[in-house]
Amino acid sequence: MATRLNYTRRKRLALDKLNISVRPVENESATFDADLNLADLRPEYDDARVFVEAYRQSTRMRFDWGTVGNIVPPPTTDRRLTEFDDWRRVRFRLKITDMTHEPGKLIAWRNQIRPKGPEDEHDNDLLFFENADLEGRVWNLRFEDDLGPVVQIDEKAGDRYDVGSDPKFQAAVFPEVMRRTLIQAFVVEEENGDDEQHWSFVWLQGFLKPQLKMSDPPPLEEGGLSGREEWIEEAVRLFAKRNDLNLLWNPEAGGQG
Question: Which residue ranges form the domains of the chain, and what is each CATH number?
Answer without folding.
Answer: 11-113 (2.60.40), 128-255 (no CATH)
